[in-house]
Each structure stands twice: as structure tokens, then as C-alpha cells.
């Protein structure tokens, strides 16, 4: 691996940023404001960390113009320092080589199609009538079942499963252990036994989506489970059958959406939060961590449930009172005495 | 794939249903009441959707007798339309071919037994003394360790792991990423370090169980972890060591049962709900989503914990008061003034 | 498999225990106090089970000295019977053979290093510049990416993924489906689209750690995600990027720690509990199941959130009052009437 190196001025030119101080400083990697050294670039976005700036050893710091006043070092000036940092950091990201071609161990059905410039790793199996498009990467140990599409430029990092009827758009990234297109959980009780309801739909994933490690997205019962473009799912998320998630929505780890719920665009779902089945959540809704959505949300805004953390002894006392809350409330005077 | 086609009359005959209207209508697939076309069959089970019936383009609709009165189209009459639909829909389910035989890439221990009509997919490994019975399917990428049994007619869709001492009954289905038989989480603190308690038991899964994607079921410490027949587990569920789950119980996604708990028969455990270790939950208990069972349940019925979702500002105000609840309660007059 | 057999006296000698009664009794396996037979060894640690002692058919029982008074059978006397049992039980644990050597199907990059006495199973892939040290076991279906280290004596049971820049210490055990080193969930909103923030760090796992099935540990954004020595993670846990977890901390199934949080040493995190990002939790903190840590914890102790389980009808009444809690509190008299 060659070490890349860029001057501050070259980075400013490349990403349309301003330069404050000495543009000839060379950047060879990135670091945190607290720990970066003379050949490293750091960033200051959150005002909370402004105090670290004076002591930072970073050769270059990306920051807002206002923060650069009086800064003695080299700064790159950006309206959004975090986004600018993200773009610059990508220059220093070591990327594994995924050359075009099919690993000799791969088991590919005769009816599947693989683009000439796609990469198919070791121990990959691809089922009947599936298609891997131009420039796509299917990492080691992935299983692609029947009637799937891996869109152009998409990347299945490793050990991803697309069960059946999963169609990925362009530039979709899926992390290891994710399972898309497994049977939705559709059951009918029939004379004391469960009867499976066939899950005939598929999964459709929009362009530029990202799906985290060990996340599961079930296929639809009759119609499809659908993610709009640029939806971002963290790890260990569960998406039930026939869910739809609007474009640009991001969900944090361990959250879950039950069957047939519809989530809007630009929503932020916190970690381990849940949405019950068949509900609708409108655009631009924020759900805080571990909250449970039990009825549809029609207004944008931030929503929460749960109780605050307490020392266990206090919690026991207060939680016991929760069981009496209705009775207590009936005894509270209507107006302040 | 040939497109199957059945007349309404043929479906009625096959599944013991009544016919209302023209029995000669041909059904080539299934759809939703709202979206189905002339060659499709839909169903009406939930009265909430009765309003969609008049406008439905479905060629045939499965419904209760009472709903068919005055219906101008073709109906199939069933006491339980959803179950009847499930059976009919299965006729239209595309099923991947899993012909008998062992994929040449499979790595099978010399002491393992595989039935002649079982299907073993690509990149499957099977350990010492394990047995795959008649008609079973072991999809691509599965790992079966030592001393396991895959019962007759069972199906491991893909990338399932049976670690060791896992015995599946007949017709068990397991979805990708599930891990059965990993070490239970048994630890003893010993002079400031954790000591592993050997997990010598196994996992026993009853006939007709279904295990969702990325669900984990640990093996027992001394005795076995046991699921009765027809237990249905959704995705991302965690079952601790030595748990027993009674027949016909269904658990929704992301729920969890801690070690040595006993869950009864015909229970319904909601999404992300939890049951603490060593508790007993009797038959026919319903736990709503994200509730936590902290003591044994001796009476059938529906149980819940948690607080309702609110806009974040209201939630903060109310949640802060939860910390004062015991103190508040002490100040509430004993009887209404 | 030969059946091992040890006399009580031999076990006492080996593990430094006292003998009460007949030391010549032979032990061939272990069992529970309730179910063990004459050739089995059981243990009594929890006083709650003392009542089972008189009726136990166990040939030998490990117990505290005080419990052995008046016990007619053979006892092994230990200060900590559970830890002593754990050590004895390990003698009876069937362990799969994992002989040194590389399975012919494995796909190992030319620049990777594998110790001569390491075991590499079927369908394993190992990427560029990765190293598997002495005595390590990499079970079937594992994927090891670029620049990883599997430390001496470590064991990846099966189907584990180390994505990139993951360094395991010595004697680390990882269960199937775990994914270490996937991209942290780092996003910047940029003109209405999400922009990925490159995740340039790695994951460092201390000696003697254990990582459960389907657990995920993301790699750091700039610096590393770090687990100290002897950290024990159960199944289905999510550890965000740049988290640090102190030595000897144990986390139960389905718990989660969001990005950049710091957890202390000797903490116990209950099942499905969560810690929000950027918080600090000091040493020796216990978090009960399904609690959410929303601010830093500076004092050792036990902490909880949530409400108690109730029958659903009572819960609905009380939960509805939670929405009025602040208003109610304002109407409660300041002092008791």
C-alpha cells in the first residue's frame, strides 16, 4: 500500500474549500482533534470540542470560518466541516482489492447472469435466474438465491444472503450476516396448528441504500417489502414483510419495524426503537432510542416513550407506584388546593 | 416456470370450500383485495377491509358466507378465509428446486449419514456423527457440527449453523443466519476472572417448528434447551440455555427468553419482548411488544409493560415526574376530597 | 469417544477440594441435583436448592462445607461450588477435533500467514496481510478480511466474519454469525443525501474475551473499537464504533452500546439493555434488563428503567395516566394534608 499524501491546498482545490494559514502542509492520514499529529488532518464540527483546538497537534483542521479566527495553524474552511472531512477521509481509506472476475470456487447456476466486470468471491453461490450487474462486488461466502438482482455498483461485503426475489438498486452496500428476502412471518391458526401463509412477494431496495451487519429484511406476503433510495440501516435491524421505508430515512442499531408498517422519508429511528405493524409514520419523524410506536404518527417531530434511568432502589419504589397510577390519579384533587 | 391455473370450482373442490357465482373463473395467481386483477384471487378476512370488496378487480375472492351476500363477483366461501387463502396461495408459490443429492463442494465427515434423497447444497460442512434424514434440505453455506440430527423433511434454507448436539424433529424449517446450539452464556466469577461453565447439553426442536433468520438458540448447560412441536420463532430472537418453549407458541421478531425460563403452550410473545431467566409463563399468555416479564405468570391473559409514546417535550416532562412518583404518591390524599 | 471416569478422591486432589464421605465413588458425567444418577456429579451453590439435596440421586455433590453437615452421601467441599463444578465439568465436555492443518477448500491470500499448528476449516477465506497465530482454530465458513490477527489459542467456532483491521488477543472465542469490524454507522447529511464517513479504525479484542453468536462489533471511525481483557458478550449484542469496554465486563443477550460510549471494568449489562452514544459508565455498574442508559454513570451500583409488567387492562389504565403525570403532579398538595 502506497501512503497517499496531499497538501492542504490540494485538498482545498479538490473539495472546494477555503484555506487559512499554510497551504503547503502535507496530509498523510486523518486523526481526531485530540490525537492527530503533524501529518494528519482532523476536523472541528461540534462546538463542544472547540476547546481542544488550541492544543491539537493536527497539521490541518477542517472547520467553519468562524472557528478559524485566531487559529494559528492551517485550517480548511468548510460550511459543513463534518461532510468535508468525510470526503477528505475517503482519500485515505484502504480499500480491499476486488478485481473483476469469478473465484473458481463459486457455484453459479447456469441460468444466472454475471457482468464481466463484476467481482464474485470465494464460496459464493448464485441461484437460478439471478443477475449481478456491472461493477458489482459479491464478497466471500454470500448466498444469492433465485430471481435476485444485484444492481450495478452494489457491494455485498461478505456472507450476505439474498434468499429469493430480492432486487437491489445501484450502489447498494450490504454488510456481513444480513439476510434479505427470508419468509415474512405470516401464520394462520388452523385447528390448533399454525399454517404458513406463503410469502409470494419480494424485496426491493432503492439506489444508494446501506444495510448493516446481521440486519434482516423479510420479503412481502403478496406485494414487496420496499426501501426507497438512500435509506440507511445500521446493524441488527429487523424489517418485517410488506414494510415500506421512505427515501433518506436512517435507522440505528437493533431497531425494528413490524409487518406492513409504512415509514416516511427523512425519518430518524433511534437504536432499539420499534414500530408496530400496519402503522404509518409520516416524513421527518424522529423516534428516540428504545421507544415503541404504537399508533400512527401524522405530524413531523420527535417522539419518545420509556422512563428515566434511576438507581435500582429508587426505581423499585417508583415503578411499584406505576401500578397504582390510575388509582392515585383518581384521588388527586381536580384543582390545586 | 409454468404458470399454474385453476378454476374457482377446482379450488373449491380441492379445499372443501363453497362457491358463490361463476365457478369457471380461472385463477393464475393471488393478489391483495385492493390490487388484484381478473385472473387473481384475493381474500377478505378482516371486516375492516370489507369496503374494498365492491371496488376489487379480483377475479375470485375468498370470504365468509355472510360477506358474500349481495357480492356480484365470484367468491369462495370459507369459515376461515385467511387459512383457506394460505392453502390456495401455496399452489402459486415458486419453490426453488432442491433435487436429491450432495453438491460436489460439500465437506461431509466420514462418520456422518446423509439420506439418499436429501439435498445438500454448495459449501455445506457436516461434522462427525451427524445425520441428515430422508427428504431433508440443507441449503448452501450451512454448517452442521458434531452429533446433530436434521429430521426427515426438514429444511435449512441457507447459511444456518447447528453447532453441536442439535436435534431437529420432522419438517422443521430454519431461515438463514440462525445459529442453534452455540454455548449457553454460563459464567462463574473466579478470583476476578470469568470462568466458563461447560455447556454439556444440546438443543431439541420439535416437529413442524420454524426458526427465523438470524435467530439464536443456545444449547443447555447440563440438560437440553427444548422447543415443543409447532413453535414459531420470527427473526433475530434469542433463546438462552435450558429454556423450554411449549408447543404452538409463537414469538415475534427481536424477542428474547433468558436462560432456564419455561414458556407455556399457545403463548404469543410480541416483538422485542423479553422474559427474564428462571421464570415460568403458563399456557395461553400474550405478551405485548417490548414488554419485559420480570416474574412468573400463572394466569392466561394479556400482559404489558412500558409507557405510551408522546411528543418528546411532553415525554420529558412526564418522565421527569416518574422519578418523583413515590414521593408524589405519599402526598396524595388517601380518600377523594 | 471414550467415557472418562474419575473417583471423587481424584477430583478432590486435582482441584484442591475437600472430600466428605466415600472418596472412591466413580464419576462418569455431570447432572443437575434433581436428575443426576449414581455415576454423576452435581452441585449445590444456590441455597434455594438445598431442599433437593436429600432426594438427589447424584453419586457426588459439590457443595460448601456448611451444606455437607449431616449429608449422608459423598460431597466435594469447595468455597465456591459453582466455580469448582465448572472446572470439573470441563473434564466431561466433548470437544470436536480440530487438528492442525488447512482444509483443502480454504481460500487463503498469498500474503496471509497461518501458523503451522493452527486449524483452518472448510470454506474459510483469509484476506491479504492477515495472520492466524499458533494453536488458533478458524472453523468452517469463516471469512477473515484484510489486515486481521487471530491471536494464539483463539477460536472462531464457525461462520464468523472479521471484516477488516480486527486484532484478536490470545484465547479469544467467537461464536457463529458474529461480525467484527464492519463499517461503523457514520453518516453526514449533505444536501439531502447521506454521505458515508469513512471508517478508518479497527477493532481490538483483549485476551480471553468471548463474543456470542450473531453479535456485531463495528470498527472505529478514526481510532479503534476496543474490548479489554476477559470481556464476555452474549448473543445478538451490538457494539457501535469507537466504543470501549473495560476488562471483565459481561453483557447479556440483545444488549447494545452506541458509538463512542465508554463502559467500565467489571460491569454487568442486562439483557436487551442499551447505552446511548458518547456516554461514560464507570466501573462496577450493573444495568438491569431492558434499561436504557441516557446519561453518564459516575457511581458504581445497580441502575434500572422501565415499568412493571401488568395485566393489559390495568396497564392501559395506568399507562394512559403516565401521559398526564406532569399535570397530575402539579395538582398534588405540597405537604400531606
Automatic annotation (TrEMBL), chains A, B, C:
Catalytic residues in the record: 241
EC code: 2.3.1.191
Keywords, in A-Z order: Acyltransferase, Lipid A biosynthesis, Lipid biosynthesis, Lipid metabolism, Repeat, Transferase
Gene Ontology CC annotation, any one: membrane
GO biological process, one term: lipid A biosynthetic process
One of the Pfam families matching this protein, by short name: LpxD
Family to which the UniProt record says this protein belongs: Belongs to the transferase hexapeptide repeat family. LpxD subfamily.
Functional note: Catalyzes the N-acylation of UDP-3-O-acylglucosamine using 3-hydroxyacyl-ACP as the acyl donor. Is involved in the biosynthesis of lipid A, a phosphorylated glycolipid that anchors the lipopolysaccharide to the outer membrane of the cell.
Protein name as it appears in the record: UDP-3-O-acylglucosamine N-acyltransferase
Lineage per the UniProt record: Bacteria, Pseudomonadati, Pseudomonadota, Gammaproteobacteria, Lysobacterales
Amino acid at each position: 500500500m502506497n501512503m497517499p499524501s496531499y497538501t492542504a491546498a490540494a485538498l482545498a482545490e479538490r473539495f472546494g474549500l477555503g484555506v487559512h494559514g499554510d497551504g503547503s502542509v502535507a496530509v498523510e492520514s486523518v486523526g481526531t482533534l485530540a490525537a492527530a499529529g503533524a501529518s494528519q488532518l482532523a476536523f472541528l464540527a461540534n462546538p463542544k470540542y472547540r476547546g481542544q483546538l488550541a492544543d491539537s497537534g493536527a497539521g490541518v483542521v477542517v472547520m467553519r470560518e468562524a472557528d478559524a479566527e485566531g487559529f494559528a495553524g492551517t485550517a480548511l474552511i468548510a460550511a459543513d466541516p463534518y461532510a468535508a472531512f468525510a470526503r477528505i477521509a475517503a482519500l485515505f481509506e484502504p480499500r480491499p482489492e476486488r478485481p473483476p472476475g469469478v473465484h473458481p470456487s463459486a457455484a453459479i447456476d447456469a441460468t444466472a447472469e454475471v457482468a464481466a466486470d463484476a467481482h464474485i468471491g470465494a464460496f459464493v453461490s448464485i441461484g437460478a435466474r439471478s443477475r449481478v450487474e456491472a461493477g458489482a462486488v459479491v464478497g466471500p461466502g454470500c448466498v444469492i438465491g433465485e430471481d435476485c438482482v444485484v444492481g450495478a455498483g452494489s457491494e455485498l461485503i461478505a456472507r450476505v444472503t439474498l434468499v429469493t426475489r430480492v432486487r437491489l438498486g445501484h450502489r447498494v452496500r450490504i454488510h456481513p450476516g444480513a439476510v434479505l428476502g427470508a419468509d415474512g412471518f405470516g401464520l394462520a391458526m388452523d385447528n390448533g396448528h399454525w399454517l404458513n401463509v406463503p410469502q409470494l412477494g419480494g424485496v426491493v431496495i432503492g439506489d444508494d441504500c446501506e444495510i448493516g451487519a446481521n440486519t434482516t429484511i423479510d420479503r412481502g406476503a403478496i406485494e414487496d417489502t420496499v426501501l426507497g433510495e438512500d435509506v440507511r440501516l445500521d446493524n441488527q435491524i429487523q424489517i418485517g414483510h410488506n414494510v415500506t421505508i421512505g427515501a433518506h430515512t436512517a435507522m440505528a442499531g437493533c431497531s425494528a419495524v413490524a409487518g406492513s408498517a409504512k415509514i416516511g422519508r427523512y425519518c430518524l429511528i433511534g437504536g432499539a426503537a420499534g414500530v408496530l405493524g400496519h402503522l404509518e409514520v409520516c416524513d421527518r419523524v424522529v423516534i428516540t432510542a428504545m421507544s415503541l410506536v404504537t399508533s400512527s404518527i401524522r405530524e413531523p417531530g420527535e417522539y419518545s416513550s420509556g422512563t428515566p434511568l434511576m438507581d435500582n432502589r429508587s426505581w423499585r419504589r417508583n415503578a411499584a407506584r406505576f401500578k397504582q397510577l390510575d388509582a392515585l390519579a383518581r384521588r388527586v384533587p381536580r384543582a390545586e388546593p
